[in-house]
Amino acid sequence: MHERLRVNPILCSGHGLCAELLPEQIDLDEWGYPLLSDEPVPTALRPLARRAVNDCPVLALMLVAAP
Amino acid sequence: MTAAIRENATRDTATASSVRPVPTGLPRLLSATGRPMDLAAHMQVHGQTPYRGGPQMLIHTIESAGLTGRGGAAFPTHRKLTAVADQRGPRVVVGNGAEGEPASDKDKTLLWSSPHLVLDGLQLAAEAVGARKVHLYVHREPALEAHLDSALHERAIAGLDRIAVNLVSAPPRFLAGEESALASRVEGGAALPRLTPPRIFERGVHGAPTLVQNVETLAQLALISRYGAAWFRGIGTEAEPGSMLTTVRLADGSGGVAETPIGTPIAELLRLAQHPAQAVLVGGYHGAWLCGEQARRLTLSNADLRPLGAAVGAGVLAALPADRCGVVESARVVRYLALESAGQCGPCLNGLPLIADSLAQLANHRSAPSARGDLARWSKLVERRGACHHPDGTVRFLRSALTVFAEEVALHEAGRCSASTYEPFLPIPAGSPEHKNDWS
Amino acid sequence: MISGTAFWFASRATGVISLILFSIVAILGILVNRQGRLPGLPRFAVTGLHRNLSLLTVVFLGTHIVTAIVDGYAHIPWLSTVVPFTSGYERFWIGLGTVAVDLFAALIVTSLLRDRLKPSVWRAIHWLAYVSYPVIVVHSLGAYKDLRSGWLLALTMATVFAVVTAIGYRVVDARSAVPRPARVPEQFLQADQVRADDVRTDDVRTDKAGSLR
Fold first, then answer.
1. ipTM
2. Same domain membership, residue B178 and residue B250
3. Which residue of B12, B196, C17, C99 sits 20 to 30 Å from the alpha carbon of B83, by its own alpha carbon?
4. Mean pLDDT of all residues in chain B?
């Protein structure tokens, strides 16, 4: 099952952890908010993605089924 | 005064058994006399509320009629009704009269003119989706609320409503009419947008499947349920049937709300021949500018407008006269839109004020050399990165302004302007300190 | 057979260490919340330290509890691990310790499951950290008399001071933070009103008579 990253922009307050953990899929814009890749998360990066979701201080990051 | 209440009709003909003449021409929604229709007047013209007798029965008729939402998105109404009716658990219906758009007056006008059509529509929609709770959501305004209260009171005495209608007042914000903000407010909280999915039809007010329909859509639904789909399709176009309410602002400053068949030429609605315009704003402040020549050739229909990146939306048409500056008007609008951000999402909270500021500097001939690049970059950064479509709509408006007023932009960059007056043309509400922070 | 004294000593030692660890974990938690950084470390390291030290605290806390019970002297029943105020010995002070354990367990368990919980639920329970801290301090001072004098007192006061300062900083910082909807007008750096400046009308759009086409 393919998954991709999604962020709740209301909860997100720009901590920026996610971009540090998963720079391949997450970049930060000029205000510190995440720019997520539309691509599904590659299998090799899944553990890091799970960690980024878990470590987000405000639980704004999610892994959802890729359409 | 007896009325034939349509029972279980799968066909939608206005038959001879009806004792009431089927209305022809216009107006359909608005009062023919120009004065508000109380219950007696409403009954005389339209008769009793034509309950079908069970859920889902009306939906087929609505599908045949081809009714689409009149709140701006033009989503097929029968699909919305089905989506909610198919959900499990107690369902909720909310009539949305909080247009939010400063340039639009149609919902307010409809609620003044024909409240009973809207209230009929609410009951019929509730019956169609099997809802047990009904709300009517309007901007906070004591006179209008009193008017609606008295209409509800009349209906209560006549025993017309099967479900009691709860009147909910919305703050005077641009985003108050957004579906998830509406749900939040109806629940008793602030009118702030929420993250979707889940969509409102799945989880809305207090988690229940919620049908949100614009008040004009409900009024149309009330008419279709009486006079049938064929009648509804009698005006308008094949693809976009029926009439719609438009708020027009002519180049000479006059205007108001008019009911018109979809597909009416814009030149006719704005009387462009007598009052020429350099540009026309279509769809309100989340809509798009068209240049004068384009607008002269088009009709008010999505078939004509969508290929140009515009849309009918909630039927706002504003004709900018030649003596005004499109850049200045647009800068005022974008500043208003930035101030109307809910401020919940980082990109919108940060990006919109920067965009507004840059455009204001351009309007004041103090544009930085990097302005064009900045505006393009910020537009890309705010699009689709909010919980709602506020940044998207703002960017659409901005891009159309920069395109249509490209010559004017160049003049401003050179420190000049072609306008002869900066008198505000488009309506921008003056903000008071309380207004800026009040979301409930 | 290990003498009771050894277990009792171990219990008090691991108790002091747990107190210090919890204080550090709390300060790190506040740092995470305020988006603070530790010099030279990436942001995820601050969060990582907060989590890892909290799990280390579980270890020391567990040892603290087990050794206290296994040591026969005080006759603390196993039930007292989770049910407060059921110990015969020092019922009140030990009871407070149990309350702290219950709260701490809620924090740890919900945090281990945090990606499965609704953010608002996890947040609400995590606020219990502020409740548990005074309970822990009072339990420590009440149950371990040696903490009330000498270098142990100095150590305890130092940790309390550090945590209270961190909490104070959080409160002050949070108060100056404006709720988002109200922040919008303040984002306007220049709040430039679009007004009529003195402007030169360009000749391109004017015909000879001076009126605009």
1. 0.95
2. no
3. B12
4. 91
